[in-house]
Amino acid sequence: MMSSSAQKEPDQTRIIAFLAEESQQPVADVAKLYEHERAELALGAHITKFLHVFAIRRVQEILRKRVADKLGALAGGSPILSL
Asked: Domain locations in the chain?
């Protein structure tokens, strides 16, 4: 049986490593981005149990946009904008 503290917090290190690998970005950069997004979400949150899920989604979205912007710049066109 898991202790209550193990059930409360997800493994931040594994989450960040997954996001870094998925996006092929440095772990340190992804860690800063993840912590920033999680902190932003926590500001107005009444329930914090699932903040990591929303933070993961936000980070993935930001990293995808960065890749799209880089590809647009490399192609000589304007960056792809998403609405």
From this structure: 10-74
